[in-house]
Amino acid sequence: MDRPQFRAYFLHPRFWPLWLGLGVLWLLVQLPYSVLLKLGRGLGALMFRFAGSRRYIARRNLELCFPELSQAQRERLLRENFASNGIAFFEMAMSWWWPQARLQRLARIDGLEHLQQAQAAGQGVILMALHFTTLEIGAALLGQRHTIDGMYREHKNPLFDFVQRRGRERHNRDASAIEREDVRAMLKVLRAGRAIWYAPDQDYGRKQSLFVPLFGVQAATVTATTKFARLGRARVVPFTQERLADGSGYRLVIHPPLQDFPGESEEADCLRINQWIEEAVSAVPEQYLWAHRRFKTRPVGEPSLYKKRKTRSAV
Q: Where is this motif: HXXXXD motif (predicted)?
């Protein structure tokens, strides 16, 4: 995809409210990091109170994935998760607009040699990530140290799409955003020996998935990781990031490449990926994106795991 270009159309009055909102956010994000963390937690508390449908989905996912926890423990985890979502809003703006030197001071990166070794060998890398609330800033921090391309879904609002893409691509000049459905471009990037951010942890429907357990629940799991690795002749390198509890920044980990991947079958590969997801999410469950209907697609004959809510009343 070409680099995003500013258009005079973005000055149309229909975009003025968004320009105003972006301006206010830009001003807020100039505050100290410690203050932004507190503001984020406050925003998360508001989201918890008023985002009834998302609160229900996240609560239900926690029930399904952590049945061993008491209701009180899951409720505390749920509130912390919404706090993390609120902080993520400001992390997004930080990654778009903070000076790179200011961002770099927050990052600790382990395992960068795994990407460097693949690059030296001319081998593409599927940087297998997850939908943590820290994904935006995690990709930005890693992008400052190593070129990574990313899977991309165009935003419906063209101005927001421009700002988002420009913010995401600014950390390395030759990075590119690839449409999520553009398989040919994905394979071209991998065969060129580049690294691409890819997350296989969401429900994309029955057509391109197999059902394998995730936290003990049958989950529609995409087989694309196997296909991309095989056709792109690429290594699969797990990548995680976490917001440090002491407020000092972020720890990013590039894990060793998966050995013997692809394996004997797509089902075995999907199971292996889900087992890794369980391990990674369990390390920092409060920072995962639980508001996604991960178990929406069910095996034939199984009822839905999510019930329709009749009201949106706050808790």
A: 131-136
- CA-to-CA distance for 307 and 295, rounded, in angstroms? 12
- Give the contacts of 236 (CB within 8 A, at least 6 positions apart): 125, 126, 128, 225, 229, 257, 258, 261
Tell me the CA distances in angstroms from 291 to 77, 84, 133, 308, one per residue in order: 13, 12, 10, 15
Q: Which tens digit of pLDDT belongs to each residue from 105-115? A: 999 999 999 99
Helices 71-97 and 52-65 pack at an angle, to 10 degrees, of: 120
Is 87 in a helix, a strand, or coil? helix
* Ramachandran area for residue 193 (φ above 0: left; ψ -120 to 50: alpha; else beta): left
**Is the CB of residue 185 less than 8 Å from the CB of residue 179?**
yes
Tell me if the bond preceding 262 is cis, omega within 30° of 0: yes
